[in-house]
Structures are given as C-alpha cells and as structure tokens.
Amino acid sequence: MTKPAELAAQFSRRLEATASAVDGSIAYLVVDLTSGERFARRADEPFPTASTIKIGILHELFARADAGALALDDPRPLPTASRVGGAGILQRLSSPRLSLRDHALLMILLSDNTATNVLIDTLGAETITTRMQALGAPGYRLRRRMMDGDAAARGEENVASAADLVTVMDAIRTGRGLTPSSQAEAIRILREFGPTAVRAGVPTGVPVAAKPGALDGVRSEIAWVDLEGRPYLLCVMTSFLADDGAGDRAITDISRAAYQYFSRLASPRSGVATVARRSCRAPRCAARPRSRRSWRLRAHCHGS
Fold this sequence. Notes:
About 50% of the residues are buried. The chain has one domain (about 5-300): Beta-lactamase (3-Layer(aba) Sandwich). The chain contains nine helices and ten strands. It is of the alpha+beta class. The two termini are about 20 Å apart. Helix content is about 40%, strand content about 15%.
C-alpha cells in the first residue's frame, strides 16, 4: 500500500469511528477537490436539513437576479406574513425596510428565519427545489417555510442528502449557474458566518464557506474548506440524536480529522504529488475556473 493510500485508509477509519460513537443517525461526505476522492457514509440518504437548506435559497436568489427576474437592492417593507420566531433579529424589529440582498445576508449570517421566509415567498419553494435538482441534487426538497409547525406536523420536512448539499455548495464554489459577480457575492456571504462546528476543527485563517443547521435532535453542516493546495468539501448530517451536543462534537471531530488529513497531503514534506488546480478565492473568483471534468466523474469512494 502506498503512503497516500495508507493515509486515506487511516482517515476513513477515523471518520467511521467518530460516526459510530454517535448515539443517533449520522451521514457524512468528504470530497477531495484535487483528486476527486470521496469518503462517505450514507451520503445519498435524505436527512432533515434544518438551516443547511438555505444554501439552495442563496443560489436561487443570485441565479434569478442574474436572469433579470428581480432586483437585489431595492428596499421593501417586511411582510407581516413572513414574521416568525426562532433564530434571527427581524422578528424583533417594528418596521424594517430591507433589500433582498440584506435578507440573504441575514439568512446566512444570523440564520434569520423571517429573512428566509421573505426569500422563500419571493422565489417560490417549488422553483428553488426544481433548480437544485437540475443542478444535480435530486434529493433536495424545500417543502415548507421556516417555523411552520403545521407543515412539519404533516411530515413536510425540508430534506436533502449529504451528497445533495455538497453538490449545491460546489455549484456556488465553481459559479455553476451564476455570473462571476454573483458567485463572488455568494461566497463572501457564506464565509462571513461566525463560529460553527466545522470551523472549530479548522485553524483560524483558513477560508471556510459554511452553513450549519440545528433542530431538536438534529445537527448538520455543509462547508467548503479552501485549504491552500488541497481544498475540500465536507458535509455532516445527523438526526435522532440522544444528545445534541454530541452531534456538534462529532461534526467538529470530523472536520478536525479532515483538516489534518488534507493538510498533510498539501504539505511539501508529504512527498505526495498533487495536480495543480486553481481554487476559487473571493475576491479573485470573478475569474471562472477553467472547464474541467467534474470531481463527481472521477470520484473514488471510501465508506458505505
């Protein structure tokens, strides 16, 4: 067994050990954006997304703006019907007037549920779902607005697989379906979010575009870690957790393991030859990556 293969096998075992220790249901997908190698556990199974579903809304918003279907920067009064509780600040403001771009920032930065509902009502849940499926995320289903208890009671939960969310994040990363300026803005917004479970496993200074999600018994996060020389995509999804904190810790442990693995491959001391690939970095990402075969076409998969 070659040294890189040995490292990959060790990494795969570490991921599986972390997942197996969780009292609940867990899936993950880690994708090496240099080699296309995948490390997966139940990556194609649908899980409740909590707020990770919002990255699809972000992509749809910018795609529609690029098509000239809406204006991102026209302030609008907040519709009463969009106000809901849970995460965010808008529910506490008496009469805000915000643009759709502002709502997008609040949706990602504060996971604001009211801002999210404004965007869902503007864009249409079915339209968002249709575009995400057309991008290659067949299990992505935005079935309800945020904090819609009646819909949730009917079983109309927002769901996606780890592979679905990785596909959507990769579309944002590469600018698929977006103009260069919208690609750069979406990446900027996703990189502004504060502390997350994935970021806790990555050293400060490494660019991370991420969106976490949380419900009772559910913890999830989708991230693109733009490690110089070895960028990667990572998604962890959990449900039926006996301890929500254990879900957060598992995501951080998987993130830390991924960073340690990929940083060794990126190091000149590793002796591992890597294929040079330009990774999109805001604000340089106005220049689209050159066309190349998708990592999905070359992927070698570890795990179940």
